[in-house]
Amino acid sequence: MRFQGHDGPDRAAAVAYYALLSLLPLLIFLISLGVALLGSFEEAYQATLFLFSGVVLPLDQESLATLREFVQRATRFQWPGILILAWTSRRIFAALSSALERIFEVPSRGFARGNLLALAMVMLTGAGLLITLTLTTAVAALEGFVQRVTGPHGAETFHGLSAMLVTHVVPIAVGFAFFFAIYRVVPRRATSTAHAFTGALLATVLWETAKAGFAYYVRNVAHYGGLYGALEAVLVLALWLELSASIVLYCGEVVALLANPDIPSPS
Fold it and tell me: Is the pLDDT confidence value at 9 over 70?
């Protein structure tokens, strides 16, 4: 009822709208950052795609190939251009922060502080990309070491375990860390680590369940027969972003109630 009272569906749609507008600049920023630091577009692209695997879930291979081609042409920026992209990408986090401030019923941070927080979250996402790149490099090096020590059979076993870890465990951990940071840092009302942990855990379970259900929907139900043409992938992505934003805001309501059970219901 609080989710509805705070106009949760409308606010989730607004967050999804800004996410759709900011997603491409954010991807270009992250890949440009990776290329500037590593000099390899392929490594930066694959790490960014892995980091955003849950977000770009509805995109088919053709759409991903088009996205890759566009981003590859666009990642020719020097540091001033990369920083401009970071500033452009902040809008998604600014919209999410504004919605959470309404949920926790706290005063707005204002233009300057709100934008600085959103920009800091963009930079934090960049740090997440660098951690992902480091993890990928470490796993590859460890796999080579295992192959030298144990031979091809041991390397094959290690590759299977690392593939399972990277495919299933790491994405869940990344999602949980994002939700935890959102609920622990963004609201100005004090939330304990336990409350943020509970909200992040609930959001992770709901998001992973939604990912499985939405993937089935896209494969078996959402056949538009080319009615929307090139816009079809964008519309499906927008629908997924709105569902994702609804989960984040709904679990934010749970955290708000855990932090302050006496908080008044919205009129």
Answer: yes
100, 108 contact by CB (below 8 A): no
Q: Six-digit token pair at 179? A: 């939700």
**Alpha carbon separation from 224 to 65, 219, 231, 232 (Å, rounded):** 21, 12, 11, 8
Instruction: Give the helix ranges, DSSP H, for 165-224.
Output: 170-185, 193-220
**With 0-12 CB in 10 A as exposed, 13-18 as middle and 19+ as buried, what is 107?**
exposed
Domain boundaries, the chain: 2-259
CB 64 within 8 A of CB 56: yes
Longest CA span, the chain: 67
> φ and ψ at 78, to 5 degrees?
-90, 180
pTM (2 d.p.): 0.83
- The Cα 44–Cα 32 span in angstroms is 8
**How many other CB atoms are there within 10 angstroms of residue 69's CB atom?**
10
